[in-house]
């Protein structure tokens, strides 16, 4: 499935300054920008910058960024699920994963994450996708935020709700391994019943295994 990636942008005024939220951005645009040194949640900043450039070059890959002048201060990624995850086993070309979302500490609490998701969903092509995200508490910055697992989970859910993602039950062993972990998804308005059924089967694969 190859959809045009329709660029959208939104200016966000915060107490710390005005930033631009835009995307999907091309790999060329990403390569020409600075990548903030505080974006360290997943990899060393240089390596994560390279990873985002690679994702932006994929046919389904989408990167929405928050930018202060020419510096990326936040981002969200969308791409097909990892081939080793259960979510790729249905071989669904209309299921993509919100793989990572990160905002530098300076702009946390300024609704940057929510706005990254809102701008993502401004693109009509997202109505042709089931967008999923898997939340694992061991990825969360509990130390940096000072929040406990449950408060962080509430913050994550509220942020994902801003992009239309809702909680979905699943028997995935990794998600089920801790009650704070969860699967969230947004089913686009043009998704057919067959795809929804396939998604339900992926959510509850263990039900049919004895």
Automatic annotation (TrEMBL):
Record Pfam families: Acetyltransf_1
Alphabetized GO MF terms: acetoin dehydrogenase (NAD+) activity; acyltransferase activity, transferring groups other than amino-acyl groups
Alphabetical GO biological process terms: acetoin catabolic process
Residue stretches making up the N-acetyltransferase domain: 19-189
SUPFAM superfamilies on file: Acyl-CoA N-acyltransferases (Nat) (SSF55729)
Coiled coil: none
Protein name, as recorded: Acetoin dehydrogenase
Organism: Jeotgalibacillus alimentarius
Upper taxonomic lineage: Bacteria, Bacillati, Bacillota, Bacilli, Bacillales
